[in-house]
Amino acid sequence: RVLALPAVFVLLVCIGAHRGIRNTRVSFYVSVMTATINLVLAPILMFPMKMGILGAALATGIAQTIGAGMFLNVIMKQTEYFEFFPGDTKTPGISKQDSKIHRQDVKDFVKTSWSLLIRQISNLL
After folding, report:
1. What angle (nearest 5°) sits at the alpha carbon of residue 38, between those of residues 36 and 42?
2. Do residues 67 and 30 touch, judged by C-beta distance below 8 A?
3. Which of 11, 5, 74, 66 has the alpha carbon at shortest distance from 36?
4. For residue 3, how many other CB atoms are within 10 A of its CB?
5. Are 24 and 18 in contact (CB under 8 A)?
6. Do residues 28 and 21 touch, judged by C-beta distance below 8 A?
7. How many CB atoms sit inside 10 A of residue 62's CB?
8. Which of 17, 29, 33, 110 is surrounded by the most beta carbons within 10 Å?
9. The predicted structure's pLDDT at residue 54
10. What is the 3-state secondary structure (H, E, C) of the chain?
11. For residues 65 and 4, is the Cβ–Cβ distance under 8 A?
12. If you compute the radius of gyration of the chain from its CA atoms, what whole number of angstroms results?
């Protein structure tokens, strides 16, 4: 499962990004697909291939990696919401003034997201 840690972080970031644009449908579909892949792979790897707990962990890692790939594929196609090249003047509605980070914005962000930070740290343990 440690090898799937980058995929877990991609999943968490992509879920948050889709919540930010109020598109939870994509998160739901990717979560269902990831869970389905895990549900199918885990018993196969655990019992017929006799891998036991290692098979369950491997199935989870594979499912999470596939889910992260699905999310990245969706995000790369949603260029109207996500700007991948900062400073790109082709993106409508974004000015240089909007992209500046203000001290109050950072304070508000930290105040509202500290519990999420604690949850993410607990995922590592």
Report:
1. 130
2. yes
3. 66
4. 12
5. yes
6. no
7. 19
8. 17
9. 94
10. CHHHHHHHHHHHHHHHHHHHCCCHHHHHHHHHHHHHHHHHHHHHHHCCCCCCHHHHHHHHHHHHHHHHHHHHHHHHHCCCCCCCCCCCCCCCCCCCCCCCCCHHHHHHHHHHHHHHHHHHHHHHC
11. yes
12. 18
Report pLDDT for 94. 47
State residue 89 phi and psi, 5-degree precision: -80, -5
Q: Would you say 67 and 6 are in contact if contact means Cβ atoms under 8 Å apart?
A: no
Higher pLDDT, 32 or 113: 32
pTM comes to 0.67
Tokens representing residue 118 in the block: 């604690």
Q: Angle between the 53-77 and 24-46 helix axes, to the nearest 10 degrees?
A: 150
- Residue that the structure tokens 């240089």 belong to: 96
Specify the pLDDT at position 86.
54
Q: What percent of the chain has pLDDT over 90?
A: 38
